[in-house]
């Protein structure tokens, strides 16, 4: 219980001053943390490779720890300020009642009890009457003072609890910051680990550790191959707010630089960097919309940091439990803002058709997951500069972007195989346009084999392979589709720039012509480079899409050649 003696020593104004000082220091810390993060992000725009990835990961971890510290310290400052605002007036109320009683000659105990002074006039009757009145007055004063003291005590307890909770948050943030340096800290996954090692890492954690990593370090697992897809999805979705805040801060910093520079971006890259940052904000908005519209899907990749453009992968269905999994890799001019929603829609069409064929010919209880994978940066002919059209034209004639994407795609395939609860999931790789080259190179990854069972290349400029044996596939499990009217990229195949022309190499050549598929459905043909995986005018997949669906369903005997 709070006593009057304690109240007389309390100085609530000092609490308010402390809260103000803590808040000011916290703002300074937050500004410094944001500036440090911006500098690292700027460095990441031109620094790539293993060391850059490690530095970026560490920076993200530090930024997350810093945000938790600022949140905890803000709570501390609020607790101090709120304590001063509530306890100060209540303290003055209690002391004023006590002072009023003492000024009237009443005795006031430290615990708030009030006693009437003795009254002796020599007249017994008058003494009794006046003493009774004084006693009533003492009771009234005590009835006011005791609740006032109790109120101060309650407010003090609340303030103490709020400050303790805030301090506990700060302690948790400190433990998180310690990372692998502190005893009992969360174990951090090894950088550049294989999908199998990533699975071992995740399985070695307790449920509490897994939960904390998703909540506190989603960047550790969201893009890590071999981690369960549901975990990756939750971790990636949990990063939306932080990614938006980071990108908005970077946008504002770049805009301020341009506003303060007499020459704008003429002598710096700030104008181009601003364009890409604003593009990534649009990418994030697009991904959020896709997640909202596909509540049963899985966001298996979210990368708005490592490249010029955003990267993502979205699964329709559950890859961890599906009997059949497809992964579609796109090509030229594919990006999140303008293309990814269409890719997800096409993945939905493919999954629906594959499961329809399974229901028709069996086994009907098998399931399909279809993944739109944009985990690399395909060539682009648009951008912030006048020369981007030429740059995209040069990129699409080179293997650089395909080589960079192939290593990531190979790891993604491995991760699907490792994370699956099926003993041997049937995985089909689908590569369109320049993405078919990326896919072909991924299947030739120098690791110990690859888990893909079938591959379909369509609208392909080349895949750097003569036959299935070059891709780690069994004979008869590599397929090519090239429409007669598709001339945008397929003409490159005839130059043999990326190996043999797929349309004449030793692969299974499938039809893209209009006709009736074995299930009795009339299907449109392909008349342009973008139509292979799209619906026809009748709302059914085109013949090319049908062929992909039955291969994904593990029913190659149903293809139309």
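Sequence proposed for the structure above (561 residues):
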């Amino acid at each position: 219980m709070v006593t009057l003696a304690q109240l007389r020593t309390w100085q609530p104004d000092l609490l308010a001053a402390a809260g103000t000082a803590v808040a000011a220091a916290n703002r300074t810390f937050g500004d410094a943390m944001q500036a440090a993060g911006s500098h690292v992000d700027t460095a990441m725009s031109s620094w790539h490779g293993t060391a850059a990835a490690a530095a970026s990961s560490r920076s993200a971890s530090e930024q997350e720890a810093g945000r938790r510290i600022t949140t905890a310290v803000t709570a501390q400052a609020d607790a101090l300020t709120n304590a001063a605002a509530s306890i100060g007036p209540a303290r003055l109320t209690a002391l004023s009642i006590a002072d009023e009683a003492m000024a009237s000659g009443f005795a006031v105990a430290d615990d708030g009890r009030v006693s009437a002074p003795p009254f002796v006039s020599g007249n017994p009757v008058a003494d009794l009457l006046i003493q009774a009145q004084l006693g009533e007055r003492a009771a009234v004063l005590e009835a006011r003072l005791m609740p006032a003291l109790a109120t101060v005590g309650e407010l003090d307890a609340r303030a103490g609890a709020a400050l303790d909770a805030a301090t506990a948050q700060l302690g948790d943030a400190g433990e998180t910051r310690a990372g692998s340096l502190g005893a009992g800290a969360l174990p951090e996954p090894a950088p550049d680990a294989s999908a199998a090692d990533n699975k071992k890492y995740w399985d070695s954690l307790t449920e509490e550790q897994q939960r904390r990593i998703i909540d506190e370090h989603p960047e550790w697992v969201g893009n890590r191959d071999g981690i369960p897809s549901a975990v990756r999805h939750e971790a990636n979705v949990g990063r939306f707010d932080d990614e938006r805040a980071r990108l908005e801060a970077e946008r504002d910093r770049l805009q301020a630089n341009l506003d303060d520079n007499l020459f704008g971006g003429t002598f710096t890259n700030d104008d181009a960097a601003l364009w890409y940052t604003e593009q990534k904000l649009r990418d994030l908005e697009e991904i959020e919309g896709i997640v909202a519209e596909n509540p049963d899907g899985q966001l298996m990749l979210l990368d708005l940091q490592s490249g010029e453009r955003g990267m993502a992968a979205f699964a329709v269905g559950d890859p961890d439990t599906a009997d059949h999994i497809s992964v579609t890799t796109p090509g030229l001019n594919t990006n999140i803002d303008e293309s990814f929603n269409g890719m997800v829609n096409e993945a939905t069409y493919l999954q629906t058709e594959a499961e329809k064929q399974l229901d028709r010919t069996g086994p009907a209880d098998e399931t399909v997951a279809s993944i739109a994978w944009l985990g690399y940066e395909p060539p682009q002919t648009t951008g912030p500069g006048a020369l981007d059209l030429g740059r995209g034209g040069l990129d699409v004639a080179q293997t650089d972007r395909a080589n960079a994407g192939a290593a990531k795609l190979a790891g993604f395939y491995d991760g699907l195989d490792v994370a699956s609860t099926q003993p041997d999931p049937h995985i089909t790789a689908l590569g369109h346009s320049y993405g078919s080259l990326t896919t072909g190179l991924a299947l030739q990854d120098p690791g110990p084999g690859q888990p893909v069972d079938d591959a379909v290349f369509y609208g392909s400029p080349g895949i750097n392979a003569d036959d299935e044996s070059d891709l780690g596939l069994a004979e008869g499990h590599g397929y090519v589709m090239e429409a007669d009217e598709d001339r945008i990229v397929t003409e490159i195949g005839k130059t043999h720039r990326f190996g043999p022309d797929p349309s004449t190499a030793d692969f299974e050549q499938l039809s893209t012509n209009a006709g009736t598929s074995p299930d009795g459905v009339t299907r449109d043909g392909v008349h342009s480079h973008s139509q292979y995986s799209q619906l026809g005018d009748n709302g059914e997949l085109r013949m090319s899409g049908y062929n992909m669906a039955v291969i994904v369903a593990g029913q190659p005997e149903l293809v139309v050649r």
